[in-house]
From TrEMBL:
CC per GO annotation: plasma membrane
Keyword Transmembrane helix: yes
Transmembrane residue ranges: 54-83, 219-237
Main localization of the protein described in the UniProt heading: membrane
Keywords, ordered alphabetically: Cell membrane, Membrane, Transmembrane, Transmembrane helix, Transport
Origin organism lineage: Bacteria, Bacillati, Bacillota, Erysipelotrichia, Erysipelotrichales
PANTHER family named among the record's database cross-references: ABC TRANSPORTER PERMEASE PROTEIN MJ0413-RELATED (PTHR30151:SF0), ALKANE SULFONATE ABC TRANSPORTER-RELATED, MEMBRANE SUBUNIT (PTHR30151)
Domain ABC transmembrane type-1: 57-237
Source superkingdom: Bacteria
Protein name: ABC transporter, permease protein
PROSITE patterns hit by this protein: ABC_TM1
Family statement: Belongs to the binding-protein-dependent transport system permease family.
């Protein structure tokens, strides 16, 4: 019942902001600056009817999600190593501080010197997502209750059960938070990389083209599509992690 109520309010909030958008577009009355949401949705449906655009969508999804998945795997591994060895944590601190401090645009330009345009979005998505996974998983490992560890030793709990019911159960909620944060940042950074790098067959290239030709309808439509894709990927990852949590906690 609570879930249905929350879902209902979510739709009302979306409708409210769509109404504000429509009012703003009517008051401004300049489509080159702000397009009506009805026009944007109409243009979005036109884009989705073109089979070539599905190739662009798939290519961009593969680029961004490959960087996201690599960031998750390596972030978890590095966090574990930092948890085990304090010298490794000290060694990695300036690296992650630097990565988090450099603006995405600077990263894109620097990396573009080293890699081809088609590989730019995965690399940038990876670099943006990596510190998020590292910080969250390290926080999860460091927040483990030492008394539970001692209890597992006293009651001779096997390493497999200890990992499942103590370590993994502690990490998964933090992993869910990391995924929710990282996936949005990866999409934003990935699209920025595509807009600057202009790879063949990419959403970012279409955004750049729409901007050059002042095609505001397409610019808003492609942007809305990116928001939808990011939300869908976020939802799918959350569902997967929730299933993992239920499986881990199941006796």
């Amino acid at each position: 019942m609570e879930f249905k109520s929350k879902k209902k309010w979510t739709w009302w909030v979306i409708l409210f902001w769509l109404l504000i958008w429509e009012i703003g577009a009517r008051l401004l009355n300049q489509e080159i600056l702000l397009v009506s949401p009805f026009v944007v949705f109409q243009r979005l449906f036109q884009l989705l009817k073109d089979s070539h655009n599905w190739f662009l969508i798939g290519a961009s999804m593969v680029r961004v999600m490959s960087g996201f998945l690599l960031a998750m795997i390596l972030g978890v591994l590095l966090a574990y190593l930092a948890y085990r060895w304090n010298w490794f944590k000290t060694l990695m601190n300036p690296v992650f501080y630097t990565v988090k401090s450099i603006p995405v645009a600077s990263f894109v330009i620097l990396i573009l010197v080293w890699v081809k345009a088609n590989a730019l979005a995965p690399v940038i998505s990876f670099l943006v997502g990596l510190p998020i996974f590292y910080d969250q998983i390290l926080k999860a490992l460091e927040s483990q209750n030492p008394s539970l560890e001692e209890m597992s030793i006293v009651f001779h709990i096997s390493k497999k059960k200890k990992f499942r019911y103590l370590t993994l159960a502690q990490i998964l909620p933090y992993l869910e938070t990391a995924c929710s944060l990282a996936i949005g940042f990866c999409w934003k950074a990935g699209m920025a990389a595509e807009v600057i790098g202009l790879p063949d067959g990419a959403i970012g290239s279409q955004l750049h083209e729409a901007k050059v030709f002042l095609d505001t309808n397409s610019l808003f439509a492609w942007t809305l599509l990116v928001i939808i894709l990011s939300s869908l990927m976020d939802r799918m990852v959350q569902i997967g992690i929730h299933k993992m949590i239920k499986e881990v906690l199941r006796s």
